[in-house]
Amino acid sequence: MVAVENVLKLNDYExxxxxxxxxxEKLFKIIQEAKKEVxxxxxxxxxxxxxxxxxxxxxxxxxxxxxxxxxxxxxLPDITKKLFSKxxxxxxxxxxxxxxxxxxxxxxxxxxxxxxxxxxELKLIPxxxxxxxxxxxxxxxxxxxxxxxxxxxxxxxxxxxxxxxKPRGPRLSHGEL
Length: 177
What we know:
The chain is an all-alpha fold. It contains 8 helices and no strands. The chain starts with a helix and ends in a 17-residue tail after the last helix.
């Protein structure tokens, strides 16, 4: 979450894009390597948790990075969609990691909901009719528009701001008087 919040604080689309691209390259490299370890070891999600440290770490990498991916996708959806459209392998790996993670019993209901929302955002699964992501640029514009329409204070303020202000000239300080 801290990494995602730091990227959000940049408020510069190009910098966010570059940083997310680097994050995704590293994240998917880790998931890919962990996938190889898990599949070669013969572990199936839902099986008894392995005792071998290398397998445990691989499972942890998949689960942790899938959750991080979910946070990034949901909080920076517009940039994420552009990055995903340029790399089909990421989409396939995301599908695999989602399936793997959901098949384990590691996540609780809240975490599973996050993964479902991520899959809906990326259109990996059909969207719920009530699906709404407030972090998309389109949603932000709609929210701002509805707030302006509903808020009588801001609409009155807008009307008052159109009044002409009296021109003010230079002032004398007490010392000059």
